[in-house]
Amino acid sequence: MPLDKTFELVELKNISKQFPGVLALNNVSMDFRKGEVHVLLGENGAGKSTLVKIIAGVYTKDKGEMLLEGSPVDFKRIRDAQEAGIAIIHQELNLLPERSIAQNIFVGKEPEKKGLPGIIDKKKMISDSAELLQRLGVDLNPNTQVKKLSIAQQQMVEVVKALSRNIKLLIMDEPTSSLTKKEIDKLFEIIRKLKSDGIGIIYISHRMDEIQRIGDRVSIMRDGEYIDTVDAKTMNMDEVITKMVGRKIEQLYSRRYNAPGKLVLQTNGLCGLRFRNVSISVHAGEVVALSGLIGAGRSELAKALFGYDPIEAGSYTLFGEKVTRATPKESTRRGMAFLPEDRKAEGLILQMPIKNNIVSASLKKVFPNFLLNNAKETRIGEHYRREMRIATPNVDKIVQELSGGNQQKVVISKWLASESKFIIFDEPTRGIDIGAKAEIYQLIDRLAGEGSAILMISSELGEVVGISDRVYVMREGEVVAELKRDKLSQEELVSWAVRGAAKND
Amino acid sequence: MIKLFSPKKRLPVPGIVWGIIFLIIFFSIIRPAKFPTLYNALLILRHSSVLIVASIGMTMLILVSQIDLSVGSVMSLAGVITAVCAESGMPLGVSLALSILVGMLIGVVNGTMVAVFRFDYWISTFATMGIAAGLALVVANGQTITVRSDFFNWLGNGKVLGIDFLILLVAVLVAGMLFVLGKTRFGYNIYSIGGSAETARLSGIDVTKNRMFVFIGSGFFSAVAGLMLAAMGSSASPIAGADYSFDAIAAVIIGGTSFDGGKGGLAGTVLGAVLLRILTLGLNLMGIPPTWQKAIIGVVIVAIIVNDVLGERRRKTNESRRVYSNV
Questions:
Q1: Which of B40-44, B81-85, B296-300 has the lowest mean pLDDT?
Q2: Which of A195, A161, A18 is nearest to A90 (CA)?
Q3: ipTM
Q4: By CB atoms within 10 Å of each CB, which of A264, A452, B281, B285 scores lowest?
Q5: Nearest to B324 among A118, A152, A274 (CB)
């Protein structure tokens, strides 16, 4: 549609951003207007957060041009963007818990006493904070320590903090993820007020109901690329979802489905730090996926099963043994393996050779009588090097020097060597290139074929649909759906993960 | 609607004040004839004064989750530089200035390694600790140097209106730094960086620059503390400051500044230093040898750290519960 230039706020032209191993943004062009709520939609990893961080000066762009009210800008520092009138509320809370609300609102931009540079005018800071809080209808004392607030109240402080300078553009990255319905209403009221003042808003959210309530235009991103922009009020939700996930399922996935065997894992009303009342089952030879948005409680569930995090209520049965309190040591003995999402920090000892890592979950084998059986260690290492096709001349190489895909193969080898029969994969292919991904899928398929039970947490809808027998969808700590293979589609998964809210409320 | 959290009006007495009161009563009962004297009170204040100054920089550093192990060596180095220079005929003022400059220079080296190049602060300041300690031995040729300057002696032992000059100096330095930490942008930035370096960065605060200043400050205050120590005895030993890194860290931690960063402050450190010196004097009067005293101070620190860490864990667990219950 033709656009009156006076409404133009930010224009992006051919923005690209490369991170090590990932092209996070590829030639993205978009425009944002004054007084509009512009929603960014896309899967995890689509590039939304990277894009808004470039606009806000948190990252610098590699290529492309950004115009602010028609004139080109190039932010080298966060402060540059702040001074140009751009504020961002990040996905995670960025507050100082030990400091007061007023100190948090004005962090890095405290008012100074007249004629005394460098000396903070605390009175003015507090009265200004009180005024801001009042104007936004937030009933809080600016002297209160932030750590004493609820998460929702802290979120409101973040909003007030963003509005404490004269801003032209406000970016909100999933601002409602920890707010209650009432608080969301409050936030939307504030957003409407800002709109009427001509402030532009970029709004990242997965909640479809919110988008139609508050959004004006919706832009869809996928795999670091700009896909399309639609009108929020008239958009067709199914079409939008297709655009979000719509990539072809390539020959990436190979899976020979077998009839499931014996019951391996059964949880009964399991509750933990960020999940509750979870009852799921996994059978031998089955690949069961946990799908949902980041923060839905999937990793927390897996960690509680393995014994990293406490189980608060309920129990589970593994290979017929009832478990109410798990520890990693006991879980390993029971035949459970856990391949964490952050394999570098939690799955590997990076500075040690491949062979040491491979035997690290089955040390009894190489320490038959308190002394290391060096030959056996090397033999086991070599076995898995060939078996898993780890690209390395020998197993004495330090794990740190391997690529992400090969590192993941070492982690898998480690658990294969321990002869685990129930394996939890947390984001098995994150940060792995496409060729190695296919190999990981083949491995998972082989493991299932050999009778292992597999529980996979994945935010990549393609792989969930591509290799799972069954899928549990989690949202806000609860399992909201169980989908069998014949019912699986990316659209179905997304709508359960995001839309459940609209259906249930 | 969001509810107002009403803070309690009652002013709490910090635990450390009870600790000091307890120690005074304890030693007064154990050694009623020797401990509770005016002479001892002044002695404690004089000895606290050096430690307080040495701990000012450390307080700022621990507030931003860093540590400077070179404090003690810099103190020794500053003392011997002034002594050697003054004895070779250089004007005393110039010698003092030179010592302080060298202290700040070591701060620059520490800051460059830790703040700019992001080296580990343990290793970096461990290295400068060694360098400064070695230099002190070289400069002093391994010997204690007597300073025959009346003015230098006065700096350490003179009185103004009946009050020790050293105590007045410390009062001025502490008051000044309390102002800096509590009222200026630099102080606010230190607390922000300590609370969360990432939040500070995202709020547009130059974390590197501020950390650099804190390390330079630590070098400055270490040098001043070293000069105070030398002036008190009118002589400089190349190992005079040896115990001060340990004592300064102890004073800061006992004073309630936490390694989590952004929590605590200078007032606590001052009390922490006083408490440590009361403990030292009291244990001396009880005839407990200095080697044991160090172990006892260590136990006090362990108790405080355990309390600190357990409290923090409880807070974290409660916080994630709160997030969960809000869903």
A1: B296-300
A2: A161
A3: 0.81
A4: B285
A5: A274
Q: Where are the beta strands (DSSP E) in A132-181?
A: 169-173
Could you tell me which of B106, B97, B99 has the C-alpha nearest to residue B80? B99
Q: Distance between CA atoms of A384 and A379, rounded to whole angstroms?
A: 9
Tens of pLDDT, residues A371-393: 888 888 999 999 999 888 888 88
Looking at chain A, how many residues does it have?
505
Contact A299, A341 (CB under 8 A): yes
Query: What band does B9 get if pLDDT is binned at 50, 70 and 90?
Result: very low
Give dist(CA A2, CA B211) in Å, integer. 51
Please tell me the pTM assigned to this model.
0.74
Tokens of A44: 């995890």
Exposure string (b/e) for B101-127, b if CB count within 10 Å is 16 or more?
ebbbebbebbbebbbeeeeebeebbeb
- Give A64: exposed, middle or buried? Use CB within 10 Å, 0-12, 13-18, 19+: middle
Q: Tokens in use for A325?
A: 């309190």
Kind plus residue range of the DSSP H or E element containing A152: helix A151-162
Cβ-contact A328, A308 below 8 angstroms: yes
pLDDT, tens digit, for every residue of B193-249?
999 998 999 888 999 999 999 999 999 999 999 999 999 999 999 999 988 999 999
Interface of A with B in 468-487 (CB under 8 A): 476-477
Q: Which residues in B have their CB inside 8 Å of a CB on A?
A: 1-7, 183-189, 191-192, 195-196, 198-205, 262-263, 315, 320-324, 326-327
CA distance A129 to A135: 10
Amino acid at A60: T
pLDDT, tens digit, 9 for 90 and up, residues A39-58: 998 876 688 888 999 999 99
Q: B106, B46, B44, B47: which is closest to B76 by C-alpha?
A: B106
